[in-house]
Amino acid sequence: MPDTQTLTQQAERQCHQRGVRFTPIRRRVLEMICASPGGLKAYDLLDKLAAVHAAARPPTVYRALDFLIEQGLVHRIESLNAYVACPCPEYRHGFQLLICRDCGRVEELHLDEVSAQLSQRSARLGFRVDRQTIELLGICDACQLAPAESR
After folding, report:
1. Are 109 and 95 in contact (CB under 8 A)?
2. Which of 12, 74, 98, 126 sits in a 20 to 30 Å window from 104, CA-based?
3. Transmembrane residues, as ranges (predicted)?
């Protein structure tokens, strides 16, 4: 996963190219999410943001999150109700998330053939997909190698 500075600079360029505003609050929320490899819940973000911006309220965080998701900079982890940075926001196709249940690490996959098969099958059934979330919960390689008592 690229570091926070790299992802933030990439987000800034992408927003500039698209003609959308990358405000200081949006930037700060993205930085906080980038710094947490396992993702952050909205209220954890609010607590961290309120420490820097006293006027921060839930709508502030949710508006920033909605923007970041819309721009493909952040993904919502449905099963955890948390948010994780997208390591490659220029990639606008389907994605899958690997989530370690021990350490919380999240890795992103881009198996286009899986997304294509789901889209094709859905279309044949007359179903319009608005959003696709594929999350695989398991144990990452580092946690598998760790002694059981340290997990």
Report:
1. yes
2. 12
3. none
Decide: 83 and 40 in contact? Cβ < 8 Å: yes
Q: Quick one: how far is CA 5 from the chain centroid? A: 16
Amino acid identity at 57: R
Last residue of a domain, one of 85, 104, 128: 85
Q: Which amino acid is at 44?
A: D
pTM of the model: 0.85
Rounded distance between C-alpha atoms, residue 109 and residue 112, angstroms: 9
Residues 71, 109: one domain? no
The one-character DSSP state at 80 is T
Predicted pLDDT at 43 = 92
d(CA 27, CA 30): 5
Does residue 91 lie within any of the structural domains? no
pLDDT tens column, 22-77: 999 999 999 999 998 788 999 999 999 888 888 888 899 999 999 999 999 999 99
- Domain hosting 135: range is 96-150
What are the angstrom distances between the C-alpha of 75 and each of 14, 106, 133? 16, 11, 9
Asked if residue 90 is part of any domain, the answer here is no
Angle at 4 between CA 9 and CA 44, to 5 degrees: 120
The per-residue pLDDT for 37 is: 75
